[in-house]
Amino acid sequence: MAQFTYDLNPVDFIIADAVGEPGKRTFYLQARAGRQSISLVLEKQEVNNLAASVLQLLAELEEKYDDLPPIARAKKVVYPEQPVEPSFRIGQLLMGYDEEDDRIWLIAKALMVNDEGAILDPDDERVPSVRIVATRQQMHTMSEHALEVVSRGRPVCPLCGRAIDRQGHFCPRTDGQAVPIIL
Question: At CA 9, angle to CA 105 and CA 145, rounded to 5?
Fold first, then answer.
């Protein structure tokens, strides 16, 4: 059986969120089980991919298992614990479903480098790992919130597709003939 540095089974809450200003945000996954709490850093696109993957898994589970109770709308709003003090940056994230307990699990492994600057194999015993086990409802709520957080980013330039900062944006598609775009 795998040994986890942190084993949050089952979680009291799980949330994917961000801190900071758009363009300078730090995205994280946070979970708590009893007194044990953990925050893990991810990239914005990784949060988006995690949320989309969870929602896809939930849809597939509903198709496969006719007897699963439907997921209700979240009544309770979950707020991240502050301050966010990340334990590590995620290098590998695995997801699965436990049919017997009707739970979704995530296994996160740290991104670590050795003294020579090479990335350690995620299966190396020195690499910290976390198991997070949550209900379908908790994972659905986390995913919906994560997608909303990701969408709060900087606006995108309609010409080049790059993000527009508060200080403005010089669009390469204008070929230097236009004033910088400022929103």
Answer: 55
**Is residue 173 a contact partner of residue 160, using CB atoms and an 8 Å limit?**
yes
**Do the beta carbons of residue 156 and residue 163 sit within 8 Å?**
yes
pLDDT, tens digit, for every residue of 17-58? Answer: 999 988 899 999 999 999 999 999 999 999 999 999 999 999
**Residue 113: pLDDT band by 50, 70, 90 thresholds?**
very high
Q: How far is CA 132 from CA 9, 92, 118, 153, 171, in A?
A: 6, 14, 27, 27, 42
The per-residue b/e assignment along 109-129, b for 16 or more CB within 10 angstroms, e otherwise, is: bbebeeeeeeebebeeeebeb
Total Cβ atoms within 10 A of residue 3 = 8
